[in-house]
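VOC family protein: structure tokens wanted.
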Amino acid sequence: MTTPSEPAGVRYIVDDVAAAVRFYTTYLGFTLRAHPAPAFADVVRGPLRLLLSGPESSGARATPEGSDAPGRNRIHLTVHDLDAEIDRLRAAGLSFRGEVVAGPGGRQILLADPAGNFVELFEPAGR
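Answer:
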């Protein structure tokens, strides 16, 4: 096992790795770390390492049959101005799943990547 100080990774199964790389690097500030094959890419944003695995990757092949729909899990990105981020991403042609939800901790909205995996944009309360 890795040491606790090493970054943990999150794996998203995607149907088009190149489209997923464009989405995360163009719109959400990720940097391409590695793209050794068409079936796999590794992007990072701060301490988050996101592994993008296409259908032919070993990560996708290890996923049980019938698990092809995205789950309710999502990565969570904190933003300073949720309304400005929504405007920026809508102007780029992206769409959201649902509307802004507000609670005692802040406001959030869900964005879907090209494969349907969720990204939560969250603005903490008091900003």
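Residues 9-124 form a domain with the 2,3-Dihydroxybiphenyl 1,2-Dioxygenase; domain 1 fold (CATH 3.10.180.10). DSSP finds three helices and eight strands in the chain.

Cheers.
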